[in-house]
Design goal:
two-stranded parallel sheet; 403 residues; mainly alpha
């Protein structure tokens, strides 16, 4: 009933300032006040409450402005993770994974509020002509992004925001499939040309890849694939941080760490690298250039394939429970594609060696030609000298020398 009343009121009200309407302003404030006690006490039944806020936000841009004016962003963040402070433990969570399924509309609301804002002021590198904005759906009625409110500046783009970023990344795995689009778009949108935000997102994803069950990594791989394909001046930096890491937390480290205790986790990381190379030319060139650093992983996968017999077709290393690697057609394809990358490197090396050899031969030929020219010139000079000699010089035996 409340939803229908709000929709009708918004549709038939032309005011651009929702806060100037006392009845509506009072209603939104009352709804937000429920976060402090009632919603926290009955969080299992909160999905409809957060859906109502999400519906109001997406009604039009004026409703988003109204929510910012009422401090909704800060209040919703506080409900989700507690009061953001630097002393918070990044690994602690206020709510369990099961609660996240009830908070889908909460995450969507927070993400959509950020997507309404212009975050270009937080970029750490300049945007270039070859850069391409993340492929995200635009806000339906937003012609000009809103100026970023202080709440967003002080939470999302401050050190205190790392815990929320980690919570948002975890939500991408724990929420119902098909409901994470806004959260993913927000993470990509804020990572564009922003080295600090990109690193925080990458670290949160890598933490999930390490700690989440090995049969529940598909959503994290999808998010990571989207992030690494963002085309800006930081793309190669993200690739290096993701693959090689900076503190023993890159994908290559994860593959090596778990190849005996959790071989399915290691396999999925290898499969991700192969998929990334097939979808992103920049990533392919980079992975081929560091092939020496992960060639051992391809050898390990080939050994695993030889150690196991074929499993039934319905078996999957990505969705089946358990930690032991299984020989599947998908794994066979992954090995073939990884081997093809290695062979490409060998081909390029052979062509490079051939080019070097050709250059060496050309240089040698040029040297021989130069030597011949110098010899010819000396012979010509000697001939001229002989022709101009007097008869007295011929008597010294120069005729014999010519002979």
């Amino acid at each position: 009933m409340l939803e229908a009343a709000l929709r009708y009121f918004i549709k038939n009200n032309s005011s651009s300032m929702m806060s100037s309407i006392p009845e509506l302003d009072g209603l939104i404030e009352h709804l937000l006040n429920l976060l402090d006690k009632d919603i926290a006490s009955y969080c299992r039944n909160s999905s409809q409450y957060f859906w109502l806020l999400s519906m109001y936000l997406n009604a039009n841009v004026n409703c988003c402005v109204h929510l910012f004016q009422r401090g909704a962003y800060c209040r919703l963040i506080t409900f989700l993770i507690g009061t953001p402070t630097l002393t918070q433990d990044l690994n602690s969570r206020r709510w369990t994974s099961s609660h996240t399924r009830d908070f889908g509309s909460l995450h969507t609301t927070l993400a959509s509020m950020v997507l309404h804002c212009d975050v270009s002021q937080f970029r750490t590198v300049d945007e270039c002509s070859d850069d391409k904005h993340p492929n995200i759906l635009p806000i339906h009625d937003l012609e000009t992004p809103l100026q970023t409110p202080e709440d967003v500046k002080n939470i999302l783009f401050a050190p205190e925001g790392r815990r929320y970023i980690k919570e948002a990344v975890a939500a991408c795995r724990e929420m119902t499939p098909g409901t994470t689009a806004s959260v993913i778009n927000m993470l990509l949108y804020c990572s564009y040309c922003n080295a600090v935000f990109s690193q925080d997102v990458l670290e949160a994803i890598q933490c999930q890849i390490i700690t989440a069950p090995s049969h529940d990594l598909r959503s994290m791989c999808s998010l990571l694939l989207e992030l690494l394909q963002v085309k800006d001046q930081l793309q190669l930096q993200r690739l290096k941080l993701c693959v090689e890491g900076h503190d023993s937390d890159g994908l290559l480290d994860i593959i090596q760490k778990y190849n005996t205790t959790d071989s399915r986790r290691s396999y999925q990381c290898i499969k991700f690298l192969v998929t990334l190379a097939n979808k992103c030319p920049v990533a392919k060139d980079y992975l081929v250039s560091i092939m020496a650093k992960w060639q051992w992983a391809i050898i390990w996968l080939k050994k695993k394939m030889n150690e196991h017999s074929w499993t039934p077709q319905h078996t999957s290393n990505e969705s089946s429970t358990g930690r032991t690697f299984q020989r599947t057609m998908s794994a066979q394809d992954t090995l073939a594609e990884a081997t093809a990358l290695f062979e490409q490197l060998n081909t390029e090396d052979e062509e490079e060696n051939k080019d070097d050899k050709d250059v060496s031969i050309d240089t040698s030929n040029q040297s021989i030609d130069t030597s011949k020219q110098e010899t010819s010139m000396e012979t010509s000079e000697n001939s001229d000298n002989v022709t101009n000699t007097t008869s007295e010089e011929n008597s010294l035996g120069l005729d014999e020398i010519d002979t």
